[in-house]
Amino acid sequence: QQQVKQSPQSLIVQKGGISIINCAYENTAFDYFPWYQQFPGKGPALLIAIRPDVSEKKEGRFTISFNKSAKQFSLHIMDSQPGDSATYFCAASISGNTGKLIFGQGTTLQVKP
Amino acid sequence: EAGVAQSPRYKIIEKRQSVAFWCNPISGHATLYWYQQILGQGPKLLIQFQNNGVVDDSQLPKDRFSAERLKGVDSTLKIQPAKLEDSAVYLCASTLLSDTQYFGPGTRLTVL
Question: For chain B, first and last CA: distance in Å?
Answer without folding.
Answer: 37
